[in-house]
Amino acid sequence: MTGYKKIAIVYDWMDKWGGVERVLLTLNEMFPKATFFTSYYNPKKAYWAKHLNINQSFIGKIPKFIKDSRIFSVILYPLAFESFNFNDFDLVISVTSSYAKSIITSPNTKHICYLLTPTRFLWSHQDDYLKKYVQYANFYIKYLKNWDLIAAQRPDKIISISETVSRRCEKYYGRESGVVYPPFDLEYWKNIRNIISDIKFQPDKKWQSDLRSKILNSKFYLIVSRLEPYKKIDLVISLFKKFKKKLLIVGEGTQRNYLRSISDDNIHFFSKLTDLELGFLYSKAEALLMPQEEDFGYVSLEAQFFGCPVIAFGKGGAVETVIEDKTGILFNNQNVGDLRQAVERFEMIKYNLKLNMPKLVPSNLKRFSKMDFIKNFLNCIE
Questions:
Q1: pLDDT, tens digit, for every residue of 251-273?
Q2: For residue 381, how many other CB atoms are within 10 A of its CB?
Q3: What domains sit in the chain, N to C, each tagged with a CATH number?
Q4: CB 20 within 8 A of CB 107
């Protein structure tokens, strides 16, 4: 597929499943002999990676409680990635939202960075992560910012996942970058939809009865997200505690227990769903809620594919993936008042929105097709 004989793919950590992991699998299809490098690999949580050739750093051997605290163990991650040796590789592709771009390569090895976003907790979302630590660690944060800026100069070329990320890259790192949208595998999702459309399809028994009793007998709204501070899930919970509408939250993350603790009986949490189960929920939901400023927003494409409108914060990736008033509603400020107005507006126009979506979604999703990703990515690395 390329003239490169030996290729490495570097990712921050392999311990979950999400939109970025779909990108890694596509890269593996493109470069099946590539070797993967990461700070640490959790085979139970990253079950999707079991067939890959993976090298993990020394972080994989340190106690779990240290590596799980990514903010407090930040000094280890630069050391981990800078310790990898890529002298035998012709091409290295780093896929990163933090440390993987910091790898050190020789002049004979080409380093392409597929940038998910500049390091969130240092730049665009520092307050969400570090607000309570700033007074204690201000000097250290400045040191990390300086290190991150230096690390961002190491790739020979940066490719951003969206126009939003490209602008951040120039703002924080002073580097221009082209844009290649992540791959949305239309054929894969068509197959999922066909199975769901079969009248005999039922969700997995382990959650079917619970889901039916709590959700499917009434209308519900949906969140599919990592449960992290910058995702602003607490904003939606605050609204739905007042609304008393049913809300289903699908995802895992560091805030899961906290978010459950502030929720009422009309809010339900699920995790570890298959794509069949997820597609089933998209097809039944009133709308998908995205209160966060997304780097890209892969789940908004999934939702639209299944005819589920998106109510999203009108900044970041959602502006690039959602067609306002046609495949979803965008709101201007991340507060309960604006979100409430967006939901109420959606309730007024949802019939026409859902009626017209089948005509608009196919052409919208083609912009993010897997084939376009492969073609555009290959053009960028040559």
A1: 998 899 999 999 999 999 998 88
A2: 18
A3: 7-181+370-381 (3.40.50.2000), 186-366 (3.40.50.2000)
A4: no
Strand residue runs (E) in 3-109: 7-11, 35-38, 54-56, 91-96
> What is the model's pTM?
0.90
Residue 280, token pair as written in the block = 């089933």
DSSP structure string for 223-281: EE----GGG-HHHHHHHHHHH--EEEEE--STTHHHHHHT--TTEEEE-S--HHHHHHH
Tokens of 301: 């494409």
C-beta separation of 268 from 260 below 8 A: no
* CB contact burial 10-24 (16+ within 10 A = b; e otherwise): bbbbbbebebbbbbb
Residues forming a β-bridge with 250 = 224, 270
Banded pLDDT at 199 (limits 50, 70, 90) = low
Packing angle between helix 275-284 and helix 298-305, nearest 10 degrees? 70
